[in-house]
Amino acid sequence: MREYTRFLQRCFRLSFVGTKLYKFWMLFLSVVALIGLNAWAKQAVGGLATTGMTDQVSWGLYIANFTFLVGMAAAAVMLVIPVYVYKNKDLHDLVIFGELLAVAAVTMCLMFIMADMGRPDRGLHLFMRFNWPISVLTWDVIVLNGYLALNLHICGYLIWCAYNERKPGKAFYIPFVFLAIFWAFSIHTVTAFLYSGLGGRPFWNSAVLAPRFLASAFAAGPAFLVLTLLVINRFTKYDVPRAALQTLRGIITVALTINMFLLGCEVFTEFYTDSTHAASAHYLFEGLGGKHALVPWIWTAIALNTFALVVLYSPFKRRVVFYAPACGAMIVGIWIEKGMGLIVPGFIPTPLGEVFEYVPTLNETLVCFGIWAAGLLLFTILVRVTIPVLSGELTKNKLYSTDSFS
Prior knowledge:
There is one protein chain. By secondary structure, the chain is mostly helical. It has helices at 2-14, 20-46, 61-74, 77-85, 94-117, 124-128, 136-163, 170-196, 209-235, 242-273, 279-286, 295-313, 320-338, 362-390. It has one domain (7-390): Formate dehydrogenase/DMSO reductase fold, CATH 1.20.1630. The longest helix has 32 residues, at 242-273. Mean pLDDT is 85; it is low at 402-406.
Protein backbone atom coordinates (compact mmCIF):
# COMPACT_ATOMS: atom_id res chain seq x y z
CA MET A 1 0.00 0.00 0.00
CA ARG A 2 2.88 2.36 0.75
CA GLU A 3 4.40 1.77 -2.68
CA TYR A 4 1.04 2.25 -4.37
CA THR A 5 0.58 5.56 -2.53
CA ARG A 6 4.03 6.63 -3.70
CA PHE A 7 3.08 5.68 -7.26
CA LEU A 8 -0.05 7.83 -7.12
CA GLN A 9 1.94 10.74 -5.71
CA ARG A 10 4.48 10.50 -8.52
CA CYS A 11 1.70 10.36 -11.10
CA PHE A 12 0.01 13.39 -9.54
CA ARG A 13 3.21 15.44 -9.70
CA LEU A 14 3.89 14.22 -13.23
CA SER A 15 0.52 15.47 -14.48
CA PHE A 16 1.72 19.06 -13.91
CA VAL A 17 4.93 18.60 -15.89
CA GLY A 18 5.14 19.25 -19.62
CA THR A 19 5.87 21.70 -22.37
CA LYS A 20 4.26 25.13 -22.66
CA LEU A 21 1.79 23.72 -25.16
CA TYR A 22 0.81 20.97 -22.73
CA LYS A 23 0.36 23.46 -19.89
CA PHE A 24 -1.70 25.78 -22.08
CA TRP A 25 -3.92 22.86 -23.08
CA MET A 26 -4.44 21.86 -19.45
CA LEU A 27 -5.12 25.48 -18.43
CA PHE A 28 -7.63 25.88 -21.24
CA LEU A 29 -9.49 22.69 -20.28
CA SER A 30 -9.49 23.67 -16.61
CA VAL A 31 -10.96 27.11 -17.34
CA VAL A 32 -13.69 25.66 -19.58
CA ALA A 33 -14.49 22.98 -16.99
CA LEU A 34 -14.85 25.63 -14.26
CA ILE A 35 -17.13 27.73 -16.49
CA GLY A 36 -19.22 24.62 -17.06
CA LEU A 37 -19.31 23.92 -13.32
CA ASN A 38 -20.60 27.44 -12.72
CA ALA A 39 -23.30 26.92 -15.37
CA TRP A 40 -24.28 23.60 -13.77
CA ALA A 41 -24.55 25.34 -10.37
CA LYS A 42 -26.96 27.85 -11.94
CA GLN A 43 -28.98 24.95 -13.32
CA ALA A 44 -29.02 23.25 -9.92
CA VAL A 45 -30.54 26.43 -8.46
CA GLY A 46 -32.88 27.32 -11.31
CA GLY A 47 -33.79 23.82 -12.40
CA LEU A 48 -34.14 22.49 -15.94
CA ALA A 49 -35.96 25.71 -16.85
CA THR A 50 -32.45 27.05 -17.56
CA THR A 51 -32.25 24.62 -20.51
CA GLY A 52 -34.08 24.61 -23.82
CA MET A 53 -35.94 21.39 -22.97
CA THR A 54 -39.71 21.48 -22.62
CA ASP A 55 -42.60 19.11 -21.94
CA GLN A 56 -42.69 18.40 -25.67
CA VAL A 57 -38.91 17.83 -26.12
CA SER A 58 -37.72 16.40 -22.82
CA TRP A 59 -34.36 15.07 -24.03
CA GLY A 60 -31.89 17.44 -25.60
CA LEU A 61 -28.20 18.23 -25.76
CA TYR A 62 -27.32 16.28 -22.61
CA ILE A 63 -28.78 12.99 -23.81
CA ALA A 64 -27.42 13.60 -27.32
CA ASN A 65 -23.88 13.79 -25.91
CA PHE A 66 -24.55 10.82 -23.65
CA THR A 67 -25.59 8.68 -26.63
CA PHE A 68 -22.48 9.62 -28.60
CA LEU A 69 -20.10 9.04 -25.69
CA VAL A 70 -21.49 5.59 -24.92
CA GLY A 71 -20.32 4.65 -28.40
CA MET A 72 -16.91 6.20 -27.78
CA ALA A 73 -16.58 4.09 -24.65
CA ALA A 74 -17.65 0.92 -26.42
CA ALA A 75 -15.06 1.50 -29.16
CA ALA A 76 -12.23 0.59 -26.77
CA VAL A 77 -12.96 -3.03 -27.63
CA MET A 78 -11.75 -2.40 -31.19
CA LEU A 79 -8.16 -2.53 -29.93
CA VAL A 80 -8.82 -5.34 -27.49
CA ILE A 81 -10.13 -7.77 -30.12
CA PRO A 82 -7.05 -7.70 -32.44
CA VAL A 83 -4.70 -8.12 -29.47
CA TYR A 84 -6.35 -10.84 -27.42
CA VAL A 85 -8.48 -12.64 -29.99
CA TYR A 86 -6.16 -12.47 -33.00
CA LYS A 87 -2.88 -12.38 -30.99
CA ASN A 88 -1.55 -9.13 -32.48
CA LYS A 89 1.28 -8.42 -30.05
CA ASP A 90 2.28 -5.17 -31.82
CA LEU A 91 -0.84 -3.50 -30.42
CA HIS A 92 -0.57 -4.84 -26.88
CA ASP A 93 0.44 -1.60 -25.16
CA LEU A 94 -2.05 0.42 -27.18
CA VAL A 95 -4.94 -1.48 -25.61
CA ILE A 96 -4.34 0.63 -22.52
CA PHE A 97 -5.03 3.85 -24.45
CA GLY A 98 -8.34 2.41 -25.60
CA GLU A 99 -9.22 1.46 -22.04
CA LEU A 100 -8.28 4.95 -20.81
CA LEU A 101 -10.56 6.45 -23.45
CA ALA A 102 -13.35 4.19 -22.20
CA VAL A 103 -12.81 5.37 -18.61
CA ALA A 104 -12.97 9.04 -19.64
CA ALA A 105 -15.96 8.50 -21.94
CA VAL A 106 -18.03 6.59 -19.37
CA THR A 107 -17.21 9.24 -16.76
CA MET A 108 -18.56 11.91 -19.12
CA CYS A 109 -21.63 9.75 -19.78
CA LEU A 110 -22.43 9.66 -16.07
CA MET A 111 -21.88 13.41 -15.79
CA PHE A 112 -24.28 14.09 -18.65
CA ILE A 113 -26.89 11.86 -17.02
CA MET A 114 -26.54 13.78 -13.76
CA ALA A 115 -26.84 17.07 -15.65
CA ASP A 116 -29.97 15.85 -17.41
CA MET A 117 -31.59 14.96 -14.09
CA GLY A 118 -31.44 18.61 -13.04
CA ARG A 119 -30.34 17.91 -9.47
CA PRO A 120 -27.74 15.36 -8.30
CA ASP A 121 -29.95 14.06 -5.47
CA ARG A 122 -32.33 12.65 -8.08
CA GLY A 123 -29.66 10.10 -8.90
CA LEU A 124 -30.55 8.33 -5.65
CA HIS A 125 -33.93 7.46 -7.18
CA LEU A 126 -32.19 5.06 -9.58
CA PHE A 127 -30.81 3.03 -6.69
CA MET A 128 -33.70 3.40 -4.21
CA ARG A 129 -36.15 2.10 -6.84
CA PHE A 130 -33.94 -0.41 -8.61
CA ASN A 131 -36.59 -1.80 -10.98
CA TRP A 132 -34.51 -4.70 -12.30
CA PRO A 133 -34.84 -6.59 -14.61
CA ILE A 134 -37.95 -4.92 -16.06
CA SER A 135 -36.57 -1.43 -16.60
CA VAL A 136 -34.18 -0.95 -19.53
CA LEU A 137 -32.91 2.20 -17.81
CA THR A 138 -31.84 0.07 -14.84
CA TRP A 139 -29.97 -2.22 -17.23
CA ASP A 140 -28.20 0.87 -18.61
CA VAL A 141 -27.11 1.92 -15.12
CA ILE A 142 -25.71 -1.57 -14.50
CA VAL A 143 -23.81 -1.92 -17.77
CA LEU A 144 -22.31 1.59 -17.66
CA ASN A 145 -21.01 1.33 -14.11
CA GLY A 146 -19.89 -2.26 -14.70
CA TYR A 147 -17.99 -1.26 -17.85
CA LEU A 148 -16.31 1.59 -15.97
CA ALA A 149 -15.20 -0.80 -13.22
CA LEU A 150 -13.87 -3.32 -15.77
CA ASN A 151 -11.79 -0.74 -17.62
CA LEU A 152 -10.43 0.78 -14.43
CA HIS A 153 -9.28 -2.67 -13.32
CA ILE A 154 -7.72 -3.66 -16.67
CA CYS A 155 -5.76 -0.50 -17.42
CA GLY A 156 -4.92 0.08 -13.74
CA TYR A 157 -3.51 -3.42 -13.34
CA LEU A 158 -1.48 -3.29 -16.58
CA ILE A 159 0.00 0.13 -15.74
CA TRP A 160 0.82 -0.99 -12.20
CA CYS A 161 2.63 -4.08 -13.52
CA ALA A 162 4.59 -1.97 -16.04
CA TYR A 163 5.54 0.42 -13.24
CA ASN A 164 6.85 -2.48 -11.14
CA GLU A 165 8.63 -3.99 -14.20
CA ARG A 166 6.89 -7.30 -13.90
CA LYS A 167 4.84 -9.38 -16.29
CA PRO A 168 1.07 -9.18 -15.70
CA GLY A 169 -0.54 -12.35 -14.39
CA LYS A 170 -2.97 -13.53 -17.04
CA ALA A 171 -5.43 -14.82 -14.48
CA PHE A 172 -5.82 -11.30 -13.09
CA TYR A 173 -6.77 -9.55 -16.31
CA ILE A 174 -7.40 -11.87 -19.30
CA PRO A 175 -10.85 -13.01 -18.05
CA PHE A 176 -11.78 -9.38 -17.48
CA VAL A 177 -10.61 -8.47 -20.99
CA PHE A 178 -12.95 -10.97 -22.62
CA LEU A 179 -15.74 -9.90 -20.29
CA ALA A 180 -15.08 -6.29 -21.35
CA ILE A 181 -15.47 -7.29 -25.03
CA PHE A 182 -18.96 -8.62 -24.32
CA TRP A 183 -19.72 -5.64 -22.07
CA ALA A 184 -18.67 -3.12 -24.74
CA PHE A 185 -21.28 -4.49 -27.14
CA SER A 186 -23.88 -4.56 -24.37
CA ILE A 187 -23.56 -0.93 -23.23
CA HIS A 188 -24.41 0.46 -26.67
CA THR A 189 -27.01 -2.20 -27.42
CA VAL A 190 -28.84 -1.44 -24.18
CA THR A 191 -28.66 2.28 -24.96
CA ALA A 192 -30.21 1.63 -28.37
CA PHE A 193 -32.96 -0.43 -26.72
CA LEU A 194 -33.77 2.58 -24.52
CA TYR A 195 -34.95 4.36 -27.66
CA SER A 196 -36.24 1.57 -29.89
CA GLY A 197 -38.34 0.21 -27.02
CA LEU A 198 -40.41 3.40 -26.75
CA GLY A 199 -43.49 2.55 -28.78
CA GLY A 200 -44.80 6.12 -28.70
CA ARG A 201 -41.80 7.42 -30.66
CA PRO A 202 -42.01 5.92 -34.19
CA PHE A 203 -38.75 7.57 -35.29
CA TRP A 204 -36.81 5.26 -32.96
CA ASN A 205 -38.85 2.11 -33.60
CA SER A 206 -36.33 0.46 -35.88
CA ALA A 207 -34.70 -2.96 -35.60
CA VAL A 208 -31.49 -1.60 -37.16
CA LEU A 209 -31.03 1.08 -34.48
CA ALA A 210 -28.76 -1.12 -32.33
CA PRO A 211 -26.58 -2.21 -35.31
CA ARG A 212 -26.39 1.45 -36.40
CA PHE A 213 -25.27 2.44 -32.92
CA LEU A 214 -22.53 -0.20 -32.93
CA ALA A 215 -21.34 0.63 -36.44
CA SER A 216 -21.12 4.36 -35.74
CA ALA A 217 -19.40 3.68 -32.40
CA PHE A 218 -16.77 1.48 -34.01
CA ALA A 219 -16.10 4.28 -36.50
CA ALA A 220 -16.00 7.36 -34.24
CA GLY A 221 -14.21 5.73 -31.30
CA PRO A 222 -11.22 4.36 -33.25
CA ALA A 223 -11.11 7.67 -35.17
CA PHE A 224 -10.62 9.48 -31.87
CA LEU A 225 -7.95 6.95 -30.89
CA VAL A 226 -6.17 7.61 -34.20
CA LEU A 227 -6.03 11.35 -33.48
CA THR A 228 -4.80 10.59 -29.96
CA LEU A 229 -2.05 8.30 -31.25
CA LEU A 230 -0.98 10.88 -33.84
CA VAL A 231 -0.63 13.49 -31.09
CA ILE A 232 1.31 11.03 -28.91
CA ASN A 233 3.60 10.17 -31.81
CA ARG A 234 4.20 13.86 -32.55
CA PHE A 235 4.71 15.29 -29.07
CA THR A 236 6.15 12.42 -27.01
CA LYS A 237 9.02 9.96 -27.24
CA TYR A 238 6.61 7.03 -27.32
CA ASP A 239 6.82 5.35 -30.72
CA VAL A 240 3.35 4.38 -31.92
CA PRO A 241 3.55 1.26 -34.14
CA ARG A 242 2.46 1.92 -37.70
CA ALA A 243 0.52 -1.34 -37.55
CA ALA A 244 -1.78 0.26 -34.98
CA LEU A 245 -2.79 3.07 -37.31
CA GLN A 246 -3.25 0.62 -40.19
CA THR A 247 -5.44 -1.70 -38.10
CA LEU A 248 -7.58 1.17 -36.86
CA ARG A 249 -7.90 2.55 -40.39
CA GLY A 250 -9.30 -0.76 -41.60
CA ILE A 251 -11.76 -0.92 -38.71
CA ILE A 252 -12.90 2.66 -39.30
CA THR A 253 -13.41 2.11 -43.02
CA VAL A 254 -15.57 -0.99 -42.55
CA ALA A 255 -17.56 0.48 -39.65
CA LEU A 256 -18.28 3.79 -41.38
CA THR A 257 -19.33 1.98 -44.57
CA ILE A 258 -21.81 -0.16 -42.60
CA ASN A 259 -23.09 2.89 -40.73
CA MET A 260 -23.73 4.82 -43.94
CA PHE A 261 -25.44 1.79 -45.48
CA LEU A 262 -27.76 1.35 -42.48
CA LEU A 263 -28.57 5.05 -42.50
CA GLY A 264 -29.47 4.78 -46.19
CA CYS A 265 -31.74 1.80 -45.41
CA GLU A 266 -33.61 3.79 -42.79
CA VAL A 267 -33.96 6.82 -45.07
CA PHE A 268 -35.33 4.61 -47.87
CA THR A 269 -37.84 2.95 -45.55
CA GLU A 270 -39.08 6.26 -44.14
CA PHE A 271 -39.43 8.17 -47.40
CA TYR A 272 -40.44 5.39 -49.80
CA THR A 273 -43.28 4.12 -47.61
CA ASP A 274 -44.22 7.75 -46.76
CA SER A 275 -46.43 6.66 -43.87
CA THR A 276 -47.68 9.00 -41.17
CA HIS A 277 -44.90 7.74 -38.91
CA ALA A 278 -42.32 9.30 -41.26
CA ALA A 279 -43.14 12.81 -40.03
CA SER A 280 -40.05 12.94 -37.78
CA ALA A 281 -37.80 11.92 -40.68
CA HIS A 282 -39.39 14.61 -42.88
CA TYR A 283 -38.74 17.17 -40.14
CA LEU A 284 -35.11 16.10 -39.85
CA PHE A 285 -34.21 15.97 -43.54
CA GLU A 286 -36.44 18.60 -45.14
CA GLY A 287 -38.38 20.43 -42.45
CA LEU A 288 -41.99 20.18 -41.32
CA GLY A 289 -44.66 22.84 -40.94
CA GLY A 290 -42.20 25.61 -41.69
CA LYS A 291 -39.80 24.37 -39.00
CA HIS A 292 -36.39 23.24 -40.21
CA ALA A 293 -33.82 23.93 -37.46
CA LEU A 294 -32.14 20.52 -37.79
CA VAL A 295 -32.04 20.31 -41.58
CA PRO A 296 -28.63 22.04 -41.94
CA TRP A 297 -27.24 19.88 -39.14
CA ILE A 298 -28.13 16.49 -40.60
CA TRP A 299 -26.96 17.37 -44.10
CA THR A 300 -23.71 18.68 -42.66
CA ALA A 301 -23.28 15.34 -40.87
CA ILE A 302 -23.91 13.40 -44.08
CA ALA A 303 -21.43 15.61 -45.97
CA LEU A 304 -18.73 15.13 -43.30
CA ASN A 305 -19.21 11.36 -43.19
CA THR A 306 -19.20 11.16 -46.99
CA PHE A 307 -15.96 13.15 -47.12
CA ALA A 308 -14.38 10.81 -44.57
CA LEU A 309 -15.55 7.74 -46.49
CA VAL A 310 -14.14 9.07 -49.79
CA VAL A 311 -10.77 9.74 -48.15
CA LEU A 312 -10.67 6.30 -46.54
CA TYR A 313 -11.27 4.59 -49.89
CA SER A 314 -8.85 6.85 -51.80
CA PRO A 315 -5.05 6.48 -52.20
CA PHE A 316 -4.64 9.53 -49.93
CA LYS A 317 -5.71 7.59 -46.83
CA ARG A 318 -2.07 6.80 -45.97
CA ARG A 319 -1.13 10.47 -45.75
CA VAL A 320 -1.70 12.08 -42.35
CA VAL A 321 -2.61 15.41 -43.95
CA PHE A 322 -5.77 13.73 -45.33
CA TYR A 323 -6.24 10.91 -42.82
CA ALA A 324 -6.39 13.14 -39.72
CA PRO A 325 -9.00 15.58 -41.12
CA ALA A 326 -11.07 12.61 -42.28
CA CYS A 327 -11.08 11.22 -38.73
CA GLY A 328 -12.01 14.63 -37.33
CA ALA A 329 -14.82 15.06 -39.87
CA MET A 330 -16.11 11.57 -39.06
CA ILE A 331 -16.22 12.27 -35.31
CA VAL A 332 -18.18 15.52 -35.80
CA GLY A 333 -20.48 13.93 -38.39
CA ILE A 334 -21.34 10.96 -36.20
CA TRP A 335 -21.81 13.24 -33.17
CA ILE A 336 -24.44 15.20 -35.13
CA GLU A 337 -26.06 12.06 -36.57
CA LYS A 338 -26.32 10.18 -33.26
CA GLY A 339 -26.94 13.25 -31.14
CA MET A 340 -29.04 16.11 -32.39
CA GLY A 341 -29.97 14.16 -35.53
CA LEU A 342 -31.40 11.23 -33.56
CA ILE A 343 -32.58 12.33 -30.13
CA VAL A 344 -34.43 15.57 -30.90
CA PRO A 345 -36.38 14.42 -34.01
CA GLY A 346 -37.82 11.57 -31.97
CA PHE A 347 -39.94 14.14 -30.10
CA ILE A 348 -40.99 16.13 -33.19
CA PRO A 349 -43.84 16.17 -33.95
CA THR A 350 -45.57 15.34 -30.68
CA PRO A 351 -48.12 12.49 -30.52
CA LEU A 352 -50.74 15.21 -31.07
CA GLY A 353 -49.04 16.31 -34.29
CA GLU A 354 -47.68 19.60 -32.92
CA VAL A 355 -44.22 20.83 -33.94
CA PHE A 356 -42.20 22.32 -31.08
CA GLU A 357 -38.55 22.92 -31.95
CA TYR A 358 -35.75 22.55 -29.46
CA VAL A 359 -32.97 25.14 -29.18
CA PRO A 360 -30.28 24.70 -26.48
CA THR A 361 -29.77 27.68 -24.16
CA LEU A 362 -26.39 29.28 -23.50
CA ASN A 363 -26.28 27.87 -19.96
CA GLU A 364 -27.07 24.38 -21.25
CA THR A 365 -24.32 24.66 -23.86
CA LEU A 366 -21.80 25.83 -21.26
CA VAL A 367 -22.58 22.80 -19.08
CA CYS A 368 -21.90 20.55 -22.08
CA PHE A 369 -18.61 22.28 -22.85
CA GLY A 370 -17.65 21.98 -19.19
CA ILE A 371 -18.31 18.23 -19.10
CA TRP A 372 -16.37 17.69 -22.32
CA ALA A 373 -13.48 19.73 -20.94
CA ALA A 374 -13.50 17.74 -17.69
CA GLY A 375 -13.50 14.47 -19.61
CA LEU A 376 -10.67 15.54 -21.92
CA LEU A 377 -8.75 16.79 -18.88
CA LEU A 378 -9.11 13.37 -17.25
CA PHE A 379 -8.11 11.59 -20.47
CA THR A 380 -5.08 13.87 -20.96
CA ILE A 381 -3.85 13.26 -17.42
CA LEU A 382 -4.30 9.49 -17.75
CA VAL A 383 -2.39 9.41 -21.05
CA ARG A 384 0.28 11.79 -19.72
CA VAL A 385 0.99 9.49 -16.80
CA THR A 386 0.75 6.25 -18.79
CA ILE A 387 3.25 7.07 -21.54
CA PRO A 388 6.37 7.26 -19.29
CA VAL A 389 5.33 4.03 -17.57
CA LEU A 390 4.88 2.11 -20.83
CA SER A 391 8.12 3.48 -22.27
CA GLY A 392 10.06 2.42 -19.17
CA GLU A 393 11.01 5.97 -18.16
CA LEU A 394 8.92 5.89 -14.99
CA THR A 395 9.30 2.74 -12.92
CA LYS A 396 9.49 1.75 -9.30
CA ASN A 397 13.30 1.88 -9.24
CA LYS A 398 13.92 4.69 -11.73
CA LEU A 399 13.62 8.45 -11.32
CA TYR A 400 11.78 10.21 -14.09
CA SER A 401 13.29 13.23 -15.86
CA THR A 402 10.75 16.06 -15.88
CA ASP A 403 11.82 17.23 -19.35
CA SER A 404 11.09 13.89 -21.08
CA PHE A 405 7.72 15.10 -22.33
CA SER A 406 8.87 17.14 -25.28
